[in-house]
Design a protein that fits this description.
The complex is a heterodimer. Chain A is mainly β. Chain A has strands spanning about 5, 10-15, 20-25, 30-35, 45-50, 55-60, 60-65, 70-75, 85-95, 100, 105-110. In chain B, strand 7 (about 65-70) and strand 8 form a beta hairpin. By secondary structure, chain B is an all-beta fold. Classes of the chains: A mainly beta, B mainly beta.
């Protein structure tokens, strides 16, 4: 079963604009990870944020985590056509021993 | 190029065939995973190996049989599959025991069952 739900399911923006997507989850977690998947390829790890962290940056990526609301957001700034992909959040449940992926957000960046 | 190599990239097989998917990594990772992914859906965990021992089987039908011959290799043996088993099969690996580490994915094997 899915632990994380992502919103929106799909997003279309112009190159240079920012893209924001959200992930909600149900149970306590140890960490939350974001992955990117380009069409026909495997997933690529983007960033991991631990449950005691509130914000993390990596290049043009900014991730926030609000454990009180059981939600996380991924912001991609100054998007590029190469950012066109599906983005998945994945949670490591505190009581579990596996990653569970959210439904994903499909992002289209138009040149 | 990914650091996790999966072969073959594409596989078409009949329901009575026996085939195997292979996965290889040379990053020294001791946890390896098989996922199944349907179109426009997230990956679904099938199996986890930790230090070459099967640690998680997500109630996968016995027509899927995993094998971890050594710390670098992971196989998935397929037999008598059904059309609904058509999907992208992804292999991943991570450092150490458990799943609290980033996972490195291969590009998958796209499997079609006739």
């Amino acid at each position: 079963s899915q632990q994380g739900e992502e919103d929106p399911q799909a997003l279309s923006i112009q190159e240079g604009e920012n893209a924001t997507m959200n992930c909600s989850y149900k149970t306590s977690i140890n960490n939350l990870q974001w992955y990117r998947q380009n069409s026909g390829r495997g997933l690529v790890h983007l960033i991991l944020i631990r449950s005691n962290e509130r914000e993390k940056h990596s290049g043009r990526l900014r991730v926030t985590l609000d454990t009180s609301k059981k939600s996380s957001s991924l912001l991609i700034t100054a998007s590029r056509a190469a950012d066109t992909a599906s983005y998945f959040c994945a949670t490591d449940e505190a009581a579990g021993n596996k990653l569970t992926f959210g439904g994903g957000t499909r992002v289209l960046v138009k040149p | 190029d990914t650091e996790v190599t999966q072969t073959p990239k594409h596989l078409v097989m009949g329901m009575t065939n026996k085939k195997s998917l292979k996965c290889e990594q040379h990053m020294g990772h001791r946890a390896m995973y098989w996922y199944k992914q349907k179109a426009k859906k997230p990956p679904e965990l099938m199996f986890v190996y930790s230090y070459e021992k099967l640690s998680i089987n997500e109630s996968v039908p016995s027509r899927f049989s995993p094998e971890c011959p050594n710390s670098s290799l992971l196989n998935l043996h397929l037999h008598a599959l059904q059309p609904e088993d058509s999907a992208l099969y992804l292999c991943a690996s991570s450092q150490g025991r458990g799943v609290k580490q980033p996972q490195h994915f291969g590009d998958g094997t796209r499997l079609s069952i006739l």
